[in-house]
Design brief:
Length: 418
């Protein structure tokens, strides 16, 4: 048992033996709707905690450790980063983990009564035999006064997307409570060391005053092969009513810059009026594009309905890393739109429009080649919007960044609005 956990556990065991069952009593577990969102940044991961890396526990002195860091690699829920755990296939990097110890022990029954889950991503560059196991969600604790670590077994589970076995290069969500199989590191009660049992069985067998979890760990264990490597990301660890969200400091942003391509207000042909001064459309600042005689916003006036420009998404230097990005466009107009009302191109290619809610039109635009949006980078989509003869504006365009999450081209919540 790591020394920090051992010291904590020893005090808990002594208290449990000497005191009443209330020692392991805790508040009623929060339900999913009441789950507490707990951000975890790089500053929270280190020797001062509240999250400890393998090497931060003196009890692990001399144990080779791998990568344990908050990463910009975007998770599939908030797309704001994740926890990177990896071992590199060398003797000097055999295990990696991040551990958080509770301020008080938590009964396994209380843990089972609230959502117990996490998200897992395994890179396909990992050793094939290691991919199925991925990273474990672990609960160190006591069963009948005996210490053990319970480890969820993703290789024996079906994720909520219905996938089993070795699945790489896509995020997976695992519900780990109830019938999900967990492995005990040591013999406790009637359970043999290294055996697998539904979490509900541990709840039934380890319900006394001298039982309960003392923390939660995200772990990549030893692979049994010094040449093997495993590269994983985990996030949204949900235990006892708290969601632990690993995230970077910066946040991605979006913007839309569209302007009319046909004259509609005062000024000369091919120009657009800004405060009484004719100016070329291409010279308009973003703050005034689409304004003046064309009805305001990134839209069209009643006498023209042609727009050109771009959608821009940017991740700052300390922002997330988005994989295989795309853009979701939403077009709207008072009174609603039909696909025959407008023609849209992106990157010079025609875009298929489908009818959305409330009279909107929706399109998904992807680059010709798979494209990532990395920290410090920008992803641009050039657009034209042309209304059919007899169709009038104003038409408003909004956009959302899409990226690979549980599925390809998943909405990220990063929006671009006029």
């Amino acid at each position: 048992m790591p020394r920090l956990a051992a010291r904590f556990a020893a005090s808990l065991t002594a208290a449990a033996v000497a005191a009443a069952p209330a020692v392991l009593a805790c508040a009623a577990p929060a339900r999913a709707a009441d789950a507490v969102h707990q951000p975890v940044t790089a500053a929270d991961l280190g020797p001062q905690g509240p999250w400890l890396r393998l090497q931060d526990d003196p009890g692990n002195a001399g144990r080779p450790f791998g990568t344990q860091e908050v990463s910009p690699f975007a998770d599939p829920v908030r797309f704001n980063g994740s926890l990177h755990l990896a071992v590199t296939g060398a003797a000097e990097a055999q295990q990696s983990q991040a551990a958080h110890y509770f301020t008080a022990p938590v009964a396994f029954g209380d843990i089972a009564a609230a959502p117990l889950s996490y998200d897992l991503y395994v890179r396909g560059s990992s050793t094939p035999s290691a991919i199925a196991g991925g990273a474990n969600l672990q609960l160190p604790g006591f069963c009948g006064g005996a210490f053990t670590t319970l480890s969820f077994q993703p290789q024996l589970a079906t994720d909520t997307q219905g996938r089993t076995g070795a699945v790489a290069d896509i995020w997976r969500h695992f519900d780990a409570g109830g019938a999900a199989l967990w492995r005990t590191s040591r013999a406790v009660g009637s359970f043999a060391a290294g055996s697998d049992h539904p979490f509900g069985d541990y709840v039934a067998a380890c319900g006394g005053a001298d039982s309960g979890a003392i923390g939660v760990i995200a772990n990549v264990g030893r692979l049994g092969d010094a040449s093997a490597n495993l590269d994983t990301y985990v996030d949204n660890l949900t235990v006892d009513g708290t969601v632990y969200d690993f995230l970077v400091d910066g946040a991605a942003t979006g913007s839309i810059h569209l302007a009319p391509t046909a004259p509609g207000g005062p000024g000369h042909p091919g120009t657009y009026d800004v405060g009484g001064t004719p100016a070329r459309v291409g010279a308009l600042p973003a703050s005034v594009r689409g304004g003046g005689g064309h009805g305001g916003g990134d839209g069209c006036g009643d006498d023209t309905c042609s727009l050109a420009g771009e959608v821009v998404f940017t991740s700052p230097a300390d922002g997330p890393y988005f994989t295989e990005v795309g853009t979701r466009l939403v077009l709207s107009r008072p009174g609603g739109l039909h696909p025959d009302d407008v023609t849209v191109t992106a990157g010079g290619e025609p875009v298929t429009l489908t009818e959305g809610p409330d009279g909107t039109l929706v399109a998904v635009v992807t680059p010709a080649a798979a494209t990532d949006l990395a920290p410090g980078g920008t992803y641009r989509t050039s657009l034209t919007v042309t209304c059919a003869d007899g169709s009038t504006g104003p038409v408003t365009v909004t956009a959302e960044l899409l990226a690979r999450g549980y599925e390809p081209l998943q909405p990220t919540g990063v929006l671009a609005r006029p």
